[in-house]
From TrEMBL:
This is 4,4'-diaponeurosporenoate glycosyltransferase. Pathway: Carotenoid biosynthesis; staphyloxanthin biosynthesis; staphyloxanthin from farnesyl diphosphate: step 4/5. It comes from Okibacterium fritillariae. Residues 27-155 form the Glycosyltransferase 2-like domain. One of its GO terms (cellular component) is plasma membrane.
Length: 256
């Protein structure tokens, strides 16, 4: 792991299947007309995969091409990602399709128990830090069933006033209640036990975490390793993250 800072002082050897209890990792990325950002998103994921080192479990990167009409598919395939085509048009359904596709291959082989598969979720307009998957596997190694990670909108996409409001609303303490599909990991056994992502347009990430909490799963609220997200105001999901960011400007203006 030359040039990469380990998580919590652990070395690459600590992220082997024997140490983490994870034999396979899926990274699932729903995408709908994201040709402007998909290449950077997948390049960041690739850096995070390489940072795991040679002893880490294999990682499959799965892009769900959900009703794409631009060049997203070509860019995703050129990156080497595994691509699945979806006509659902809802982010919850797209995430579900990607995970079902990945799990189906493991079930056919029949050699990997669900509790030894980790599903890391992010978005096609987001870039993960190089230590992102290290952080996820560290939490799996500690016995967590899910990691509710944090995000940070790219500072250049927000005004100074919006950035102040964002930071005031998102201190990300130990018991923070924020949930972001762009940084959410879950053990496959826990995911399946609660029925997985719902096929809905918005809030599938929150609903999944609520179900995990209710089931008694060991859910960790992350405080570090933020995924950088787009600060765009025209999003793909109704009442989703882009719409939420639009409210920051209203609050910033009211405080002037």
């Amino acid at each position: 792991m030359t040039g990469v800072e380990c998580v919590d002082g652990l070395s690459a050897h600590d992220f082997s299947p024997e140490r983490t209890g994870i034999d396979e990792v899926y990274v699932v990325v729903p995408a709908r007309n994201e040709e402007a950002t998909i290449a950077a998103s997948l390049a960041a994921i690739d850096r995070s995969v390489r940072a795991l080192g040679d002893e880490a479990p294999p990682v499959r990167v799965i892009v769900v091409l959900d009703r794409c009409t631009d060049g997203t598919a070509e860019l995703a395939r050129a990156s080497g990602a595994e691509c699945v085509v979806s006509t659902i048009g809802r982010v919850g359904g797209a995430r579900r399709v990607g995970i079902e596709h990945a799990l189906a291959a493991s079930v056919r082989r029949g050699d990997t128990p669900l509790d030894r598969i980790w599903i890391a979720n992010t978005d096609a307009d987001s870039t993960v830090p190089v230590t992102w998957l290290l952080h996820h596997l560290h939490r799996a190694r500690s016995g967590c069933d899910a990691l509710v990670g944090i995000v940070s909108p790219r500072a250049e996409d927000l005004t100074s006033g919006e950035l102040v409001v964002w930071k005031a609303r998102h201190s990300f303490g130990r018991d923070h209640e924020h949930v972001f599909g762009a940084n959410l990991g879950v053990r496959a056994s826990a995911y399946e036990a609660v029925g997985g992502f719902e096929n809905i347009a918005t809030g599938e990430d929150v609903r999944l975490v609520e179900a995990l909490d209710a089931s008694g799963a060991n859910v960790h609220r992350g405080q570090t390793q933020p995924v950088h997200t787009s600060g765009r105001r025209l999003g793909r999901a109704p009442e989703g993250f882009a719409d939420y960011l639009s409210t920051l400007d209203d609050v910033a203006c009211d405080s002037r």
